[in-house]
Amino acid sequence: VQLQASGGGLVQAGGSLRLSCADSRRTASNNAVGWFRQAPGKEREFVAAISWNGGNTYYADSVKGRFTISRDRAKNTVYLQMNSLKFEDTAVYYCAVGLRSVPQTQTSGYIYWGQGTQVTVSS
Question: Would you list the DSSP string of 47-103?
Answer without folding.
Answer: EEEE-TTSS-EEE-TTTTTTEEEEEETTTTEEEEEE-S--GGG-EEEEEEEESSSS-
